[in-house]
Amino acid sequence: MTFVPVTLCFLTRIESGVFQVLLGTKKTGFGLGKIVGLGGHVEPGESDAEAACREVQEEAGVVVLEADLRDAGVVAFHFPARPEWNMRTRLFVAERWDGEPSESTEIRPEWFDVGSLPVERMWQDAEHWLPRALGGSLLRLTVVLNDDNETVREVLDYSTR
User: Fold this and answer.
1) Which residues of 37-101 form beta strands (DSSP E)?
2) Where in the chain are the domains?
């Protein structure tokens, strides 16, 4: 089974004592209209960390250094009805960056309180792993989607913490 390598990077901050994460409304392509993390495909010759930093800059106009990325693990997304959509997603969280997030042609960024994530506007699988990734877990999951390519059939958890 083939999985396309992609990355997601979640910028976090404390604002007025509230833990927040930067997410964005997808304006084009895969996931159009959904709220997603910043990220995308890993280019040939690029490490997962390099891809995460590049994608954050392209999508939100801020600079994240590889040294400031915390590895939050890997989620493999298995689409049995559309195997060409299968993805191996490396997750990163960053508390430091340079610049102020701004809208791009692909993403309209917005800060959300981690305690009330907009899961009803995200891919359904996000509620299974995003709070854990933001909470410090190192994830090793496989999310199997139903034939509708939207809803979760099962989550296989291989995480150790």
Assistant:
1) 38-41, 69-78, 87-94
2) 4-157
CATH architecture for residues 4-157:
Alpha-Beta Complex (3.90)
24-77 pLDDT, tens digit per residue, is 999 998 889 999 999 999 999 999 999 999 999 999 999 999 999 999 999 999
Query: Tokens 């340079």 identify what position?
Result: 98
Structure tokens at 124: 């359904």
Question: What is the H or E stretch that residue 111 is in?
Answer: strand 107-113
* Amino acid 98: pLDDT: 97
DSSP state at residue 120: G
86 Ramachandran zone, left/alpha/beta (phi>0; psi -120 to 50): beta
Strands 69-78 and 139-145: parallel
The pLDDT of residue 161 is 60
> Residue 159 has what pLDDT?
86
Q: Residue for token digits 């939207």?
A: 150
pLDDT at 149: 92
Q: What is the widest separation between alpha-carbon atoms in the chain?
A: 46
Q: Considering only CA atoms, which of 151, 4, 13 is closest in space to residue 76?
A: 4
